[in-house]
């Protein structure tokens, strides 16, 4: 990655992180309700019976209500667990599962570990992002776990990133290893960007 791209990514991430930290509790609650409704509708529209999702941090758009509701509906939900080698293991979400702090301080499930290839069985991937641009390029948080995962799946399922409405940008800095997404979910809308990946 060139120094200019790396610097642009770092600066944009810092700005986005700061914006997220200034959201009011009321705005966060409204976003949580909206994200759950949008994700529920996306799963229904795609007919997904097995999905991967992430356990949101306090500053991310909340995915936990969606995960709990999906599990209650009988949808199989895989949650990521970070590994030292840059790959992701997975655990099946359950309503009574404990949560611990992962390698980078992110919330991760406690449970039976499934290997990185478990992701091959999902119908839909729901992933975190710092921002997504109108062409489907995703800016992650810099560790490359999801770019590596998406890039390694044969017959990759639909991939949707979850961000706040203000985090859909005209363009994000990207490099050759960065993977685009099929769509983006915000608290108020779901945008299909499948042409970006085809």
UniProtKB/TrEMBL annotation:
What superkingdom does the record give? Bacteria
The record's keywords, sorted A to Z, are: ATP-binding, Ligase, Magnesium, Metal-binding, Nucleotide-binding
Q: Which Gene3D superfamilies match?
A: NagB/RpiA/CoA transferase-like (3.40.50.10420)
Reaction(s) the record says it catalyses: (6S)-5-formyl-5,6,7,8-tetrahydrofolate + ATP = (6R)-5,10-methenyltetrahydrofolate + ADP + phosphate
**SUPFAM superfamilies attached here?**
NagB/RpiA/CoA transferase-like
| InterPro entries named among the record's database cross-references | FTHF_cligase (IPR002698), FTHF_cligase-like_sf (IPR024185), NagB/RpiA_transferase-like (IPR037171)
> Sorted alphabetically, which PANTHER family does this protein's record hold?
5-FORMYLTETRAHYDROFOLATE CYCLO-LIGASE, ATPASE INHIBITOR/5-FORMYLTETRAHYDROFOLATE CYCLO-LIGASE
Which cofactor does the UniProt annotation name? Mg(2+)
Respond yes or no to whether keyword Plastid is given for this record. no
EC number(s) of the enzyme? 6.3.3.2
The name under which this protein is listed is 5-formyltetrahydrofolate cyclo-ligase
> GO MF annotations for this entry?
5-formyltetrahydrofolate cyclo-ligase activity
Q: Which organism is it from?
A: Microbacterium fluvii
The record's family statement is: Belongs to the 5-formyltetrahydrofolate cyclo-ligase family.
């Amino acid at each position: 990655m060139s120094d200019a791209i790396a610097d642009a990514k770092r600066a944009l991430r810092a700005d986005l992180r700061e914006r997220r930290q200034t959201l009011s509790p009321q705005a966060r609650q409204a976003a949580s309700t909206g994200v759950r409704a949008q994700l529920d509708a996306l799963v229904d529209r795609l007919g997904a019976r097995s999905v991967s999702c992430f356990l949101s941090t306090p500053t991310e758009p909340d995915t936990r209500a969606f995960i709990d509701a999906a599990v209650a509906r009988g949808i199989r939900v895989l949650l990521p667990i970070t590994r030292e080698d840059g790959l992701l293991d997975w655990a099946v979400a359950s309503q009574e599962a404990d949560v611990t702090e992962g390698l980078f301080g992110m919330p991760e499930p406690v449970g039976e570990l499934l290997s990185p290839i478990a992701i091959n069985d999902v119908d839909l991937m729901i992933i975190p992002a710092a921002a997504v641009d109108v062409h489907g390029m995703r800016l992650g948080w810099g560790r490359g776990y999801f770019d590596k995962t998406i890039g390694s799946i044969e017959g990759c399922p639909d991939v949707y990133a979850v961000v706040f409405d203000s985090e859909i940008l005209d363009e994000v800095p990207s490099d050759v290893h960065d993977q685009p997404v099929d769509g983006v979910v915000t608290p108020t809308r779901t945008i299909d960007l499948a042409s970006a990946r085809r």
